[in-house]
Amino acid sequence: MADAHTFSDRYRQGMLTRRSVLGDSHVDRAQSSATPFDEPFQELITEAAWGNVWSRPTWTKRERSMVTIALLAALGHDEEVAMHVRATANTGASRADIGEALLHVAIYAGVPAANRAIKIAKHVFEEMDAGKAA
Questions:
Q1: Of 22, 82, 104, 129, which has the fewest Cβ atoms less than 10 A away?
Q2: What is the pLDDT of residues 8-35, one digit of tens each?
Q3: Domain 59-134: what homologous superfamily?
């Protein structure tokens, strides 16, 4: 990726927020696997999603986390659901919060979407619990 000094303030804020939500190891993996093909995409999501939306002060990270999980579940983006369920360890969204968000998905986006996301969340919780026990 380009030298850090060439990035905008919005990008730099986005990277701070992205790291605080997803964790350094996740972001480091994404950054280290970036190629010239997907570097522009990594820069876009860091600046737009993390620097513009997730960094806004109007909602807490907990609130954004719940909304994000619900939207991703409704759209059937399973890998992203799992990633954002893992991120709740950093956002303050509880398992009960995720359950409530997925109840909304069931009503407003459909039971199959919520059912799939609940299975994903349960699997991620099992992984997280096993990691704590180790």
A1: 129
A2: 999 999 999 999 999 999 999 999 999 9
A3: AhpD-like (1.20.1290.10)
